[in-house]
Amino acid sequence: MKSHLGRRPFSAMELHTLYNGYIYGDQRLAREQAKHWHFWLPLFAYYTGAYSDEIGHLTLDNIVTLDGIRCFDFHTHGKIKPRYVPIHNALLDAGLDQYLGYLNEQNQQRLMFDLPAKSGRYSEKVRIWFSGEGERAGYLQKCAIPTVDQQGMKTAISSLRLNFEQQVRIHALQANCKDAFNYLLGFKDFNEQRFADMQLLNTVLQNIRQINPQLHWQRFIDRHN
């Protein structure tokens, strides 16, 4: 792992718990202030490996088609390189196209339009909602997942990037293409501007394990108290 010393990826059981938590169920919590980004951002983080600030910056114009492959265009994070990340089929299964249609109807450009920036960054609001702050419980605590384990390793929203990194490493090596790994993670070890074989990149990306195929954005907005 190249990033996030002291952080660990989520276990398979923790991922199952996260993506079967109340956000992805049929019931709203009492006093819960549901936002569209609560549903989408953890999914984007898992299936793209992007940082929450990158996801917060995504607009409709950042969804592009290259060589027949629909991709997210990430280019807003100073620490890692710009990259095109194919859209995982699981996001489409979860109602992404319906959601994009909703954004158009609402004249919204930013995909996470209801995620406000704090101090010029989107990641701060995400961190507080996901991990909690002070007495305020976050999504992790509400799913009974500890933010620090017995070995002192932390979990946070960026742990989903580590899950992405784990899986992409395996599938890129199976495809005999370490460049695909370095490119999808935005690592500077990839020396070119753009990955040439989008079909290969998409094959690697689509091998990321789908979690909870039952979840859907329509189910999220239809939830009741």
Features:
3 strands, 11 helices, mainly alpha, 40% helix, DNA_brk_join_enz, globular, 3-stranded antiparallel sheet, 225 residues
Describe the structure.
- There is one protein chain.
- The chain has 225 residues and is mainly α.
- Helix content is 40%, strand content 6%.
- It has eleven helices and three strands; from the N terminus they run H-H-H-E-E-E-H-H-H-H-H-H-H-H.
- Strands 1-2-3 form a three-stranded antiparallel sheet.
- The longest helix is centred in the C-terminal third of the chain and has 16 residues, at 159-174.
- The model has no long low-confidence stretch (mean pLDDT 93).
- InterPro entries: DNA_brk_join_enz (IPR011010).
Number of separate strands: 3
| Overall body shape | globular
What's the gyration radius in Å? 17 Å
Portion of residues in helices?
40-55%
| SSE-based structural type | mainly alpha
